[in-house]
């Protein structure tokens, strides 16, 4: 006994078998694959394909639109929302809107759309079919060669992926072995540097103390020389006697020139040491340097003149300046202002700290290099290089195209740029963000974003359209909108196996 479910479905199976076994009646404008939908029912009726109503079978293609979806008039122009099928034997069948049927224009290559217009349309399907097949074979050959290269690149990409992932664990183990030494040397470096810094600070503080004492003595000596009336204070008139304060070089020290250094009526030693000494010392140095500079210029001019003055005259001029300078204290001893070398015990600690830094830097550099390699391998493992990893073969590679005065550069998984042809650097057009192809064809597009900001506009971005080609080549660059670029890149990586592609003849 048959199961109940089979008994229930048996009439439907028999009906389907009856439809397939009997000869299907042709209907104008309907492809063979849909003829079963247009066969007369047992009641000689036709049900609209949208199921909205049932009409007499004789109303099919009667040049009157009965069905809302236009399905009753596939072979006439009665319905504006219907389609006529051109069988185009010898070429490729296709649909056209039914409003083009019998409009005296030949739309189907077999002329079947003008069956009742009185226009004689030549059948050119064989000719178009031959041209289409030649073009199809040409494209297929390119795809075939590209697909073969893609398989090679896939092997290269997978090998690269396997190599990087294989190296991760040994790299981690090597890093783990180095980490104790890194921690040890870092601790020793800190101890040595702390000891070095402590003795250096002590040496520097002692020198600062000695230097300050010497500075006080020099300031006191100079204060005593400037205090002409020996009353323990320096007034502005006493300070005016020093020609090195003659800033405008008019041979006279004015009250205004003195005010720049003497801000009180009378300056005692403490005020002089804290607020006047350093500024006056600098002014005097500048004055003496100017004198020496002028003397050198005078000597150079004297040598160039025919009637140069005698050497005795030059010596007399030098003596005059020397005498003028000797009225004031000479330059402070420069050696007093330079910190003496560190003592041997400090130098020994410095050498020890230097060696500790060298040991730590050496092992730390190795650890950092290992960390970079581990990150690179992990990033590679987490990146999308296609289902077969073929795109990994183009990582770190770039492709250029010259357009007028610019060179555009496309770097898969990197950054796109625009630069003046021959220039070293350029403008960023965005960094790789994601594969942006439609569902089912994800790897047909790339999106690059966050490029250099446009003036008074958005950040630059690039969309990459990827097409099949025998070679990797950037073939087109456009800017359809301000700061939004469109590249077309041909590559074997976009080639599928043409011998496995399914061609759909009917829509």
UniProtKB/TrEMBL annotation:
Residues 1-16 form the signal peptide. PROSITE patterns: EF_HAND_1 (PS00018), EF_HAND_2 (PS50222), MRH (PS51914). GO terms for molecular function: calcium ion binding. GO terms for biological process: IRE1-mediated unfolded protein response; N-glycan processing; PERK-mediated unfolded protein response. Keywords: Calcium, Coiled coil, Disulfide bond, Endoplasmic reticulum, Signal. InterPro entries: EF-hand-dom_pair, EF_Hand_1_Ca_BS, EF_hand_dom, Gtb1-like, LDL_receptor-like_sf, Man6P_isomerase_rcpt-bd_dom_sf, MRH_dom, PRKCSH. One of its GO terms (cellular component) is glucosidase II complex. Residues 396-497 form the MRH domain. Residues 292-346 are annotated as: Disordered. Residues 292-304, 317-332 have a biased composition (Basic and acidic residues). Residues 346-373 form a coiled coil. Residues 214-249 form the EF-hand domain. This is Glucosidase 2 subunit beta. It comes from Caenorhabditis elegans.
């Amino acid at each position: 006994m048959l199961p109940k479910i089979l008994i229930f479905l048996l009439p439907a199976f028999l009906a389907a078998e009856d439809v397939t076994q009997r000869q299907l009646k042709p209907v104008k404008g309907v492809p063979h694959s849909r003829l079963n939908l247009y066969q007369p029912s047992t009641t000689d009726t036709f049900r609209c394909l949208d199921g909205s109503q049932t009409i007499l079978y004789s109303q099919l293609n009667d040049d009157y639109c009965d069905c809302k979806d236009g399905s009753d008039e596939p072979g006439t122009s009665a319905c504006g929302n219907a389609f006529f099928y051109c069988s185009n034997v010898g070429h490729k069948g296709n649909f056209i809107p039914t409003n083009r049927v019998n409009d005296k224009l030949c739309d189907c290559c077999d002329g079947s759309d003008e069956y009742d217009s009185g226009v004689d349309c030549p059948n050119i399907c064989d000719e178009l079919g031959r041209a289409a097949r030649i073009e199809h074979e040409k494209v297929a050959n390119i795809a075939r060669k590209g697909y073969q290269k893609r398989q090679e690149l896939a092997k290269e990409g997978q090998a690269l992926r396997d190599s990087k992932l294989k190296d991760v664990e040994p790299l981690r183990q090597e890093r783990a072995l180095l980490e104790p030494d890194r921690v040890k040397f870092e601790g020793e470096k800190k101890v040595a540097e702390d000891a070095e810094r402590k003795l250096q600070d002590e040496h520097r503080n002692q020198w600062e103390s000695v230097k300050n004492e010497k500075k006080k003595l020099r300031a006191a000596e100079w204060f005593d020389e400037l205090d002409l009336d020996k009353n323990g204070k320096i007034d502005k008139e006493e300070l005016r006697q020093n020609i090195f304060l003659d800033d405008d070089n008019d041979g006279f020290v004015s009250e205004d020139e003195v005010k720049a250094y003497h801000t009180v009526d009378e300056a005692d030693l403490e005020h002089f040491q804290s607020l006047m000494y350093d500024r006056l010392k600098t002014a005097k140095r500048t004055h003496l340097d100017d004198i020496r500079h002028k003397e050198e210029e005078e000597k150079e001019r004297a040598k160039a003149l025919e009637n140069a003055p005698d050497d005795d005259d030059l010596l007399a001029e030098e003596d005059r300046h020397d005498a003028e300078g000797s009225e004031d204290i000479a330059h402070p001893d420069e050696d007093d202002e330079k910190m003496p070398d560190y003592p041997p015990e400090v130098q020994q600690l410095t050498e020890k700290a230097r060696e500790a830094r060298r040991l730590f830097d050496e092992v730390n550099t190795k650890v950092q290099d290992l960390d970079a390699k581990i990150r690179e391998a992990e990033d590679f493992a987490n990146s999308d290089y296609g289902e077969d990893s073929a795109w990994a073969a183009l990582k770190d590679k770039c492709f250029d195209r010259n357009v007028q005065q610019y060179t555009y550069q496309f770097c898969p998984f990197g950054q796109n740029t625009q630069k003046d042809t021959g220039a070293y650097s350029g403008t960023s057009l965005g960094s790789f963000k994601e594969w942006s192809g439609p569902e089912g064809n994800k790897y047909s597009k790339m999106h690059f974003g966050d490029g250099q900001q446009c003036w008074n506009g958005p950040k630059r971005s690039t969309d990459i359209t990827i097409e099949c080609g025998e070679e990797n080549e950037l073939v087109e660059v456009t800017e359809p909108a301000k700061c939004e670029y469109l590249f077309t890149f041909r590559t074997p990586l976009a080639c599928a196996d043409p011998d496995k592609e399914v061609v759909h003849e009917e829509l």
